[in-house]
Design a protein that fits this description.
Layout: H1 7-28, H2 35-48, E1 52-56, H3 59-69, E2 77-80, H4 87-93, E3 98-101, E4 124-128, H5 139-149, E5 152-156, E6 164-165, E7 168-169, E8 176-180, E9 194-198, H6 201-211, E10 215-217, E11 220-221, H7 232-242, H8 245-262, E12 276-277, E13 283-286, H9 290-299, H10 329-337, E14 338-341, H11 349-361
Parallel strand pairs: 2-3, 2-4, 4-5, 5-8
Antiparallel strand pairs: 1-9, 6-7, 6-12, 8-9, 10-11, 13-14
Helix pairs in contact: 1-7, 2-7, 3-4, 3-6, 8-11
């Protein structure tokens, strides 16, 4: 079976270096918030050109703690997209704030900046764009709106490590950039992990406190916090992979170009806007024949996944927000047609050609 992602191939490539570093961590007996975490925080902050990096337990926690640190809570609103993973809305709801959805652009599938202003109220505190599938959202327009209305911008970069717009990396535009290191991400750990990037020293200090039970020092708790600490073993894995992240992303872009070459023009392929560097966490096509394509791929032992079949505003858990079918037509149409194909750095050209042939035949 052709998998969506083959983590074993990546592991075999880095196995020797990885085991050496993991052995050092195990021999040190420092397993939580130790020197490897601090080194990773420093290197990822430098990679993005920001001042502060704070390692946390997951991408969801990164979003949650960023919202929390900016004082957003009960009665507040955060504008975001309905076409994303559920964690984006969860992170807002954890604080008592309310996610307010805005439809997406048809080509990039990112939040549509042209529709944001109409949703701003006196309760709006932040905009949370998601760089979906690895293509940057239109940050210039989003930042302009945020500046005019004095709003925070919290970037959901779970799928966009290394993506850039006009030479500037996602996660460095807003007040905070929030990353996931889930194993299948472009930069993935061997379990859960996440990071918040920002330039605000005071907010960074608050997030460090919040991730560690509200404590800045041993057994001295200034507030009620959370248990959200990145461990040393995951940091070691990420340090090894971070050295190769640009190469991994280059290979993803190469594979996307091969898909574009081999797939019929009758298939709606992902776009890459001028000035943007897409890192293809997912290579996602759109087609009216999605079900048939997915069936034929499965018959030929090729994986495919629908990200995401139900937009957030139609999720049962969020019925209380009061949205209904038809509120966000572009997101709904996209959810009915989108299909993600196998994508990982080690994917071979012949495999891509085979997948494209199956789809073209449909």
């Amino acid at each position: 079976m052709i998998p969506m992602v083959d983590l074993k191939k990546q592991f075999m490539d880095i196995k020797e270096e990885l085991f050496e570093l993991l052995t050092e961590v195990l021999e040190s007996s420092q397993y939580v918030l130790g020197p490897r975490v601090r080194e990773l925080e420093k290197r990822i902050a430098e990679y993005h050109g920001v001042a502060e990096g704070i390692g946390v337990a997951s991408g969801t926690d990164a979003l949650h703690l960023a919202v929390e640190a900016f004082g957003i809570g009960d009665g507040d609103e955060v504008i975001t997209t309905p076409f994303t993973f559920f964690a984006t809305a969860e992170a807002v709801l954890y604080t008592g704030a309310r996610p307010v959805f805005v439809d997406i652009e048809r080509d990039t599938m990112n939040i549509d900046p042209a529709q944001i202003e109409a949703k701003i109220t006196d309760r709006t505190q932040a905009i949370m764009p998601v760089h979906i599938f690895g293509h940057p959202a239109d940050m210039d327009k989003i930042l302009d709106i945020a500046k005019r209305y004095n709003l925070r911008v919290i970037e959901d970069c779970a799928q966009s490590f290394g993506a850039a717009m006009n030479g500037r990396k996602t996660g460095s535009f807003g007040d905070a950039g929030c990353f996931s290191f889930y194993p299948s991400k472009n930069l993935g750990a061997f379990g859960d992990g996440g990071m918040v990037l920002l330039n605000d020293e005071a907010a960074a200090g608050d997030i460090r406190k919040l991730r560690n039970h509200g404590s800045r020092g041993a057994y001295r708790h200034e507030s009620v916090g959370f248990n959200s600490r990145l461990d040393e073993l995951q940091a070691a894995v990420l340090l090894v992979k971070l050295k190769r992240i640009d190469l991994y992303n280059e290979h993803r872009r190469r594979n996307a170009a091969l898909y574009n070459k081999f797939l019929s023009d009758r298939i709606e392929k992902p776009v890459e806007r001028n000035g943007c560097s897409h890192v293809y966490h997912q290579y996602s096509i759109r087609s009216d024949k999605r079900s048939e394509i997915q069936k034929r791929l499965a018959e030929n032992e090729a994986s495919s996944v629908v990200y995401y079949p139900t937009p957030l505003h139609l999720q049962e858990a969020l019925e209380f927000l009061g949205y209904k079918k038809g509120d966000f037509p572009v997101a709904e149409e996209t959810a009915e047609k989108v299909l993600s194909l196998p994508m990982y750095p080690e994917l071979e050209e012949e495999t891509i050609r085979r997948i494209a042939e199956i789809i073209n035949n449909v």
